[in-house]
């Protein structure tokens, strides 16, 4: 599942080929958007910004029009040079923005909408987002305040996935960040002190920002995520996994050195 670093990474690659350019062609091959007339509405408009907040991505056009996307579990962004093989089949493309020899493509995207720029500021889902964990502007005080506003009986691992607490962290980074700070994802918020919460957030912030700026996923640590039954790299105890939270997302942890 794409997390905030992947989305910021895509925004950076898209900016490089779209910024301050009027796309040569915009297509919406998927039937769901066939009647939306986006090619007509966006015709002749330059791209003035491509940015991300958490897992949300925005392509901002002249004239106060913004494309908003969220990839959920299934979607992907591709940036392809002409003639290069696309990362997924063309029939899975929902949106194609072509500028010169580059095509920016959204595949399998469940949330894709064209909105007035003003709505991106007042939309309830977007306005409720917590501070973005990726990038220099990560607001640690805001994160702590939002974390402390949660039910103190809520598990830290569950709270970290709540995009209203902090935006951008998904299941893999949640598991790795808790491991790095030696905090069990099952510990109740009431028993996680501020230093521990900040240590978790700081690891996510540093590592995800690095990943967002990189050209691959080599920067991603994999100490616990997907390693059920394998020995912990710190203490050798087998890593455990179990579903957590309302969505029953599988969480991974070392039962010995994460308490
Ligand atoms: Zn361990």
Question: What are the SSEs and their pairings?
Answer:
Layout: H1 4-18, E1 25-27, H2 38-42, E2 47-53, E3 56-61, E4 65-70, E5 76-81, E6 93-99, E7 102-107, E8 111-116, H3 117-122, H4 124-127, H5 140-148, H6 156-160, H7 171-180, H8 194-213, E9 240-244, E10 249-253
Antiparallel strand pairs: 1-6, 2-3, 3-4, 4-8, 5-7, 6-7, 9-10
Helix pairs in contact: 1-8, 7-8
Zinc ion is lined by residues 232, 234-235, 237, 254, 256-257.
Describe the structure.
There is one protein chain. A four-stranded antiparallel β-sheet has the order 1-6-7-5. It has a four-stranded antiparallel β-sheet with strand order 2-3-4-8. It has eight helices and ten strands. It is an alpha+beta fold and 259 residues long. The model has no long low-confidence stretch (mean pLDDT 94). It is elongated and about 60 Å long. It has helices at 4-18, 38-42, 117-122, 124-127, 140-148, 156-160, 171-180, 194-213, and strands spanning 25-27, 47-53, 56-61, 65-70, 76-81, 93-99, 102-107, 111-116, 240-244, 249-253. Helix content is 29%, strand content 22%. Helix 1 runs parallel beside helix 8. The protein starts with a helix and ends in a 6-residue tail after the last strand. The structure holds zinc ion (ZN). Zinc ion (ZN) binds next to loops.
């Amino acid at each position: 599942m794409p997390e905030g670093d992947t989305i910021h990474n895509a925004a950076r690659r898209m900016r490089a080929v779209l910024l301050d350019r009027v796309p040569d062609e915009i297509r919406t091959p998927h039937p769901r958007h066939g009647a939306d007339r986006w090619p007509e509405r966006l015709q002749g408009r330059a791209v003035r910004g491509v940015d991300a907040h958490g897992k949300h991505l925005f392509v901002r056009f002249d004239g106060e029009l913004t494309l908003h996307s969220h990839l959920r579990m299934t979607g992907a962004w591709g940036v392809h040079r002409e003639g290069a093989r696309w990362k997924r089949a063309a029939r899975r493309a929902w949106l194609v923005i072509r500028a010169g020899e580059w095509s920016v493509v959204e595949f399998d995207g469940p949330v894709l909408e064209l909105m007035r720029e003003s709505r991106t500021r007042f939309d309830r889902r977007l306005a409720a987002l917590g501070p973005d964990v990726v990038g220099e502007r990560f607001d640690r005080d805001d994160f702590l305040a939002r974390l402390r506003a949660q039910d103190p009986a809520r598990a830290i691992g569950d709270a970290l996935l709540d995009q209203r607490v902090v935006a951008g962290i998904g299941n893999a980074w949640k598991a790795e960040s808790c491991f790095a700070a030696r905090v069990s994802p099952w510990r109740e918020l009431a028993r996680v002190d501020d230093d521990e919460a900040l240590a978790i957030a700081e690891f996510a912030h540093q590592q995800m920002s690095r990943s967002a700026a990189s050209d691959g996923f080599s920067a991603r640590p994999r100490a616990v995520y997907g390693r059920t039954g394998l020995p912990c790299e710190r203490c050798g105890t087998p890593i455990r996994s179990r579903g957590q939270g309302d969505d029953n997302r599988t969480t991974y942890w070392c039962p010995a050195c994460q308490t």
